[in-house]
């Protein structure tokens, strides 16, 4: 815990981003929330024994059929949150690798920086630490796509073992 507090307080945004447990996921099933017209409910495989239920406010941005079976990026160490009667256990961000081939495996942890930095990731923070230290709120304003639609944390590329993470069409967009 001392390392987490040190990284959060003194290491800046990139070190804080390393405390986020961002993983590759696959949407197994998605449907519109029964009680919220702007929310989807997704069953997402992130490499755990059971899929996670995640609610996302993507109804106005992504057609439902574009979520079914797709690889996504999941912020997995948030505290579960009740969203109109459904317990949401993470945050979904639609994404693909730079070749749009989506070959990363569900559960693979995402990192920021060069390919060589994969093995230097700090241990992910616990959900209570993410909430108390407002780590997501610190990191999120620095997450954007660049002119080639690549996901970036400031000047650091978001990566999986098969390449960079990118969206298909949004240049210089905020990621949340």
Automatic annotation (TrEMBL):
Keywords: RNA-binding, tRNA-binding. Residues 16-124 form the TRNA-binding domain. InterPro entries: NA-bd_OB-fold, tRNA-bd_dom, Tyrosine-tRNA_ligase_regulator. Pfam families: tRNA_bind (PF01588). Coiled coil: none annotated. The keyword Transmembrane does not apply. GO terms for molecular function: tRNA binding. The keyword Phosphoprotein does not apply. Gene3D superfamilies: Nucleic acid-binding proteins (2.40.50.140). Residues 97-129 are annotated as: Disordered. PANTHER family: NUCLEIC ACID-BINDING, OB-FOLD-LIKE PROTEIN, TRNA-AMINOACYLATION COFACTOR ARC1 FAMILY MEMBER. This is tRNA-binding domain-containing protein.
């Amino acid at each position: 815990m001392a390392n987490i507090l040190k990284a959060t307080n003194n290491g800046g945004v990139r070190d804080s981003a390393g405390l986020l447990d961002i993983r590759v996921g696959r949407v197994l099933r998605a449907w519109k929330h029964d009680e919220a017209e702007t929310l989807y409910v997704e069953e997402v495989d992130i490499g755990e024994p059971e899929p996670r239920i995640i609610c996302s406010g993507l109804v106005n941005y992504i057609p439902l059929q574009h979520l079914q079976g797709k690889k996504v990026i999941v912020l997995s160490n948030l505290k579960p949150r009740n969203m109109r009667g459904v317990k949401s256990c993470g945050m979904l961000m639609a994404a693909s690798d730079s070749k749009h081939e989506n070959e990363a495996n569900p559960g693979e942890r995402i990192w920021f920086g060069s390919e060589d930095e994969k093995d230097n990731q700090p241990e992910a923070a616990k959900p209570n630490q993410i909430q108390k230290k407002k780590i997501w709120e610190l990191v999120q304003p620095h997450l954007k796509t660049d002119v080639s639609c690549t996901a970036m944390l400031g000047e650091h590329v978001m990566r999986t073992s098969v390449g960079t993470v990118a969206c298909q069409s949004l240049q210089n967009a905020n990621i949340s």
